[in-house]
Amino acid sequence: MKQILVVDDDIPIGDMLEETLRRAGYAVRRAYSGTEALLEQEKERPDLVLLDLMLPGLAGEDILPSFAGIPVIVLSAKADPEDKVGLLLGGAADYITKPFETRELLARIAVQFRQNPKGAKEDLTYADLRLDPERRCLRVGDRETRLTPTECAVLTLLLDSPSAVVTRSHILDCLSADSADGTEASLKTHISHLRKKLKEAGSRADIEAVWGIGYTLRGA
């Protein structure tokens, strides 16, 4: 059964969404603030998120990047095209303006599940590294290190082709497809942060730069 996380502090709207979704055959979890939504995601990754923007504490825009890899449909009263464009470019899969028809919402959810079939990603291993892409968790022995969505994406590319050179252009193309974070300068920063996390975790692996081409992951 597909699991949907409803993030909305408006209890009547949340109750309506929960009833509608359960009748449609979905499992539903609730969060009433941005912080609570992040905690729920840490417990278990949902298959899809319905995200309000006006939340107590952390706003919807603030927590959107934390749901990388999960389809997020924004439900908001904000109707300005600039708001919609910014959120869609920032990682949202869809945007529905409140008030909305529940039939339209269910149709858009069905489209997301058709486009993003759920499939558990296997851990990636190399040398003493083990990466859990679902949790964005890097393990070296008993030590666990959390990665940002972009760091996880970069390390996944390197782990897909260990010891081979992955070109900068390929990495940047992959990053640009998911976010606006695909620039040369930002890539260097993410590589630097990854190197630091590998070292702090006690790994013998390192990311080496291949001048003029890209990067490679070495196990010793």
How would you briefly describe this protein structure?
The protein is α/β, with parallel strands linked by helices and 220 residues long. It is built from eight helices and twelve strands.
Query: Which second-level CATH architecture of the largest domain applies?
Result: 3-Layer(aba) Sandwich
Rounded to the nearest angstrom, the radius of gyration is 19 Å
Widest sheet: strand order?
Answer: 2-1-3-4-5
In the residues, how many domains can be counted?
Answer: 2
Q: Given the structure, what is the number of helices?
A: 8
CATH homolog superfamily of the largest domain? Response regulator
Which regions contain 5 or more consecutive residues with pLDDT less than 50?
none
Strand runs, count: 12
Structural class: alpha/beta
Query: Strand-and-helix sequence, N→C?
Result: EHEHEHEHEHEEEEHEHHEE
Cα end-to-end separation = 43 Å
Under CATH, the topology of the largest domain can be stated as: Rossmann fold
What kind of sheet is the major sheet?
Answer: 5 strands, parallel
Mean pLDDT: 86
Percent strand: 15-25%
Instruction: Estimate the helix proportion, in percent.
Output: 40-55%
Kindly provide the name of the CATH class of the largest domain.
Answer: Alpha Beta
